[in-house]
Amino acid sequence: MVKEKINDIEIIYDEGSNEIEKFKIILKNNYALIKKKIGDIKVISFIKCEDEKVLYLEKLLDYINNIIKEFLENDNIILSFENTSLEEMYINFLTRKLDVKEDKRIININPYISNEFFYQLFYYFIGYHYYKEKNDMNSYLDYVKYHNNFNEVIDWFVNKVRFSTSNILLGELISYFDGTFMDNIDEITNLLNNELTKENINNAITSRKKLEPITRRELDYLFIKFLDYIKAPGSWYKLYNNLKINKNIIYTKTNQDIDKSQCFVDNGVLKILIDSDDSVRGLISLVHEFMHYVSSVDKSTLGNYAILEIPSIFFERLCAAFLVDNGYSKEIINDILKTRKGCNLLLCMKIGGIYNIINKYIKNGPINENDELMSIERRINTLMQDKKTKDAFINMYKKANLTYDAKDIVYRNYDYFIRSITENGTSVVLGYQYIIGYLLTEKLFDNIDDDMIKKMINVTDNLKKMTLQDLEDIFKVKVLNKL
């Protein structure tokens, strides 16, 4: 006698049974349906048993086959499969799989259907439509029982709904945009695309150079000296001192090229994490995150996202100049610019494709697969004309373990778009404001002076109350033409 568990169900059988392996496969593939049918029973036995808590099956395959056939041939189930769109089912599936919070859901999900049972229905549903389209419903039952051609069915489904689902989500998305966004969508998209330059691609794939080492004590001394350098208000010294006393600055050592420093909330307390390589780079990170802290402390959120990065990027650039003035290598300025451009590239790779899709939809209507493929092929061909750009482009994709075939790129872009919109709702488009904030600080450094530093200190202290329009007025610069 053998006892074996499949999820929460224990099965008991004699060795040598010819049907048991088939039964186990069918049970695994249809577990939610079988579990729903047998209710509270936890044990299925193929050896005669008198225990009321054990389900004894003499003809095990007939029993499980009948459950499946009865369900799939139910008129209400068939009607439901016919009346539910593939796109709606796909968004519902992703909403559950990604565990999307209720306030961000594009569609409502039925709370009375468990995720486990919904996934079972989903695989039945897509198989039903696949075999119906192929006019081969005789093979449908074997697909349900044994998952025959399972991967082929999944690929067919995703390819079939990719662009129709994207168009549905785009229609939902743009209904939330205000006039400022709609008026500037071309310019915003171009700003993102302009960051995907040959220089930035090369920056992103090149490891950072080693900079002068400093101790933790030297870092602390230099930070205070930097506050003196910018004529910071007394409240900033006090905030920094309180951070140290309360041990709310956490230092960790990194061996990677990506700086993971952050200002974050931990159990209601705002803290700073510095991901340091024990060089002057740690001071730059501290300055950057401290500005987030100043603009966020004693407030309910981490600040106005649209302009959140402006003080941090401004003062990290100023800190690089401060270090050079104090005898450190000029390489630190190049490093800051390179790191920032590298971060911009990663961000643009993440959201640039989303903005291109939104812009095309607003200007031209529903997205067409063939048009997208032709557009990407032209762009790849252009990049391949220059050897250095070609090498950087190929290396970038290889480093990310991605293929750069046009169809693969288009499909990845739209699969990412669908997942991003489903998971994040309208908040997925917020990243553009980071680039705009970065470009504003670039403009400021063309004419930096003491008055500008004083104004930026005031902006940092009052960031929560300000908008991008306010900052453009204060510094007399323009980023978006129609803002």
Kindly give the count of domains: 3
Radius of gyration: 29 Å
Could you say which overall geometry the principal axes of the C-alpha atoms support? elongated
Q: Which class best fits the helix and strand makeup?
A: alpha/beta
What is the ordering of alpha helices and beta strands? EEHHEEHHHHHHHHHHEEEHHHHHHHHH
Could you give the order of strands across the largest sheet? 1-2-3-4
Distance between the termini: 76 Å
Q: If you had to describe this structure to a student in words, what would you say it looks like?
A:
The structure is a single chain. The protein is of the alpha/beta class and about 475 residues long. The protein has three domains: about 1-70, no CATH class; about 80-160, no CATH class; about 175-483, no CATH class. Helices cover about 60% and strands about 5% of the residues. The protein contains 21 helices and seven strands. The chain has helices at about 20-30, 30-40, 60-70, 75-85, 85-95, 115-135, 140-145, 150-175, 180-195, 200-205, 215-230, 235-245, 280-295, 310-325, 330-365, 370-385, 385-400, 405-425, 430-445, 450-460, 470-475, and strands at about 1-5, 10-15, 45, 55, 250-255, 260-265, 270-275. The strands form two sheets. Strands 1-2-3-4 form a four-stranded mixed β-sheet, covered by helices on one side. Strand 1 and strand 2 form a beta hairpin. Helix 5 packs across helix 8 (about 150-175), helix 14 packs antiparallel against helix 15 and helix 14 runs parallel beside helix 19 (about 430-445). The longest helix is centred in the C-terminal third of the chain and has 34 residues, at about 330-365. The N and C termini lie far apart (about 75 Å). The mean pLDDT is about 85.
